[in-house]
Amino acid sequence: MSEVQMVHLTINNIPVEVEKGTKILAAAKKIGIDIPHLCYHEDQRIKAHCRICSVEVTGKKRLLAACSTEVWEGMEVFTDTPIVRDTQVAILQLMLANHNKDCLSCPRNQNCDLQELCSRFNILESHLPSVVKHEPRIKTNPSIMRDPSKCIRCGRCIRACKDIQGIAALTYNHRSSDIGVTTAYDRPMEATDCVLCGQCSIVCPTGAIVEKDDTDAVLDALQDPKKHVIVQVAPSVRVALGDAFGMKPGEIVTGQMVQALRLLGFDKVFDTNFGADLTIMEEGSEFIHRIKNNGVFPMITSCSPGWVNFLEKNYGDFKEHLSSAKSPMSMFGAIAKTYYPEKAGIDVKDVVTVSIMPCTAKKFEAARPEMGRDGMRDVDIVLTTRELIKLIKYVGISFKDLPESEFDSPLGTGSGAGAIFGATGGVMEAALRTVYEKFTGQTLPRIEFEEVRGFKGIKEAEVDLGERKVKVAIAHTLKNAKILMEDVKKGKSPYDFIEIMACPGGCIGGGGQPIGTTNAIKQKRMEALYQIDRSLPIRKSHENPDIITLYKEYLGEPLSERAHELLHTHYHKVEKLYSF
To answer: Are 211 and 201 in contact (CB under 8 A)?
Structure first.
C-alpha cells in the first residue's frame, strides 16, 4: 500500500495538513471554517456553478472556487478578504434579483440555504431590480410541487436525478441569463421518466422543488369531531425525525414520536412495522408458492413506489416479476379500512387513515385506484417526515422533552424484521427469516443475514433451503435497478429473489426525509434500525402475535381469497399519462 502524501497549506494564516487531492472547502472544514456554498453537495460530484465559495489564493490573479480547487504544498488561502466578501455579496444580490422573495409563504422558510446565506452576510434588502418571472407553482401530481421562481440554477436536482437515479428527468434549458431547470419540453414531472421519488427535493437548497403539502388536510380531519383519525408511521421515520429537533443523527425517537402524534390529536397511533410483517407473510408465501409451482423468476419486491413507477414506465413487459403483495403502507391501509372498523365497532366511513412516510412517491401510491375499494381510498392522506415536522412545530410541541409512549393495539405490534424494512436489504432479510423457517420447517441457525446489509449498490447472497438453494440480490437507487433489470430483460438474471429500493440507502434516504440528509447520516439511521431489531423480543414476522391473530380471526391464511382481495394488487405497463 502506497504511503498517503500530505500537503501543507495555510487558511487565513492557520496551518493545515491534509491529504493530497483535498479540495479547499474540505481543508477549511477541518479547522472549523465553513466556506459558504450553494451548488456544492457532499454526496454529489463537483459542479462549481454558483461561485459563492470563491476564495483568494496568494499568487493567483482571480478568485478560485473552493469546492473544485485542490490544495497544493505551500498554498495560502484567504476566505474573508474584502474582495472575497464583495464577490460573495454580489453573487447573492444577483441571485435575489432573479428569485421570488416571498419567504414568509415559502415551504422552505427558515430551512433554506439561500435565506441562511443572506442572513449570514447581513443582506437585508435586494439592491438590484427584480427580473424574476412570477410563474405559478406546478401542482400536477400528488407528490411533488415545483416553483420555478425559487430556482437558483445550482444543478443539485439535476445531479440527483441523473447521477444517483440514472433517470435525467430534469435538465437545464436556454442559456445565459435565461437559463433554467425544467423537464424535457416543460412537461409535468409525471409525464416524463420521473418516478416521483423526491430525491430532487431533498437536495434542493431553496423552495424550488418540495413535496406537495397535505398538512392542512390532516388538521381538518383532526378537528372534525365526527372523524376517527388513525395514523401509521414507517420504520425509518423514527430514526430521522429527531434531526429536526436538535438530536443526534440516527437517534431513535420512537416513544417521543408516538407521544407527539397523540398530542396532535390522533385517535390511534399504529406502527407500519405491523404492515411490514403482514407484507412478509404474503410476499414470503408468494415466493414459496412460486418455488413449488414453477412460477415466474426472479420475483422482485414491490414495496418501493418509486421503483414500481420505474418498472411500469421502463420495463412494463416484465411486471409479472413483481410481487403482487402490496407495500406495508397499503396493506395496513386495507386492514385499517376493513378489519379494524369491525373490531373497534366504528363505521368505516368515519375512519380517516393517515400515513407518515419517508417517501414522496407514497402520496402517488395512495392515490392509485387499485389501493382502495367501494369508492374509498385505503390510505386517505400521506405525510412525509418533513410534513410531520411542520405539524409538530405548528402545535408548539417541545419534542425533545416529551415522555415516551407506546403504539396502540391491535395494529401497533411490529417485529424486528418489520423495523429493518427501512434500510436497503432489510426487506430481503426480513423475508429470508420467514421463508427459511416456513419452507424448511426448521429454526434459523443464524437470524442475521449480514451479506444483504450495507451501502454497496448491488449486493447478493445465497441461502440454502435444503432441497433448493436460493440466490438473492439487493439493489438501491434506480441506476442500480436498471443493471439488474437489463439482465432480466435479456433472460440472463441468475437470481431467484430481488429486492429493489428506489432511494439511496432505502427508506432511510427517502425523498421525504429531513432536509440535510446525507450519506453519512443515512449510515447512522441504518445502524439505528438494526439496533431496534436487536432490542425487540420478536424478530421474525411470522411470530408477531397480532399478525397471528389477524390471520386466525379475519384473513384465514396467507394467499387466501380474502388476503388476495385486500393485500395484493396488479401493475400496469404505462403507455399513457396518469391524471389526478
So the answer is: yes
Given this model, what pLDDT does residue 576 score? 46
CA 194 to CA 426: how far, in whole Å?
A: 25
C-alpha cell at 227: 372523524
CA count, 13 A, side-chain hemisphere, 148: 18
Contact 306, 141 (CB under 8 A): no
pLDDT above 70 (res 258): yes
Are the C-beta atoms of 87 and 54 separated by less than 8 Å?
yes
The domains of the chain are located at 6-92, 106-211, 215-567
| CA-based R_g, the chain, Å | 25
Residue 70: pLDDT band (50, 70, 90) is very high
Catalytic residues: 283, 286, 303, 323, 362, 365, 370, 507
Would you say 198 and 143 are in contact if contact means Cβ atoms under 8 Å apart? yes
Q: Kindly report the CATH number that applies to the domain delimited by 215-567.
A: 3.40.50.1780
- Contacts of residues 2-6 at CB distance under 8 Å and 24 or more positions apart, as own/partner, are none
- How would CATH label the architecture of 6-92? Roll (3.10)
The enclosing H or E element of 439 equals helix 426-440
Split at pLDDT 50, 70, 90, the class of 133 is confident
Q: Which strand (E) or helix (H) includes residue 534?
A: helix 519-535
According to CATH, the topology of domain 106-211 is Alpha-Beta Plaits (3.30.70)
Residue 579's pLDDT is what? 46
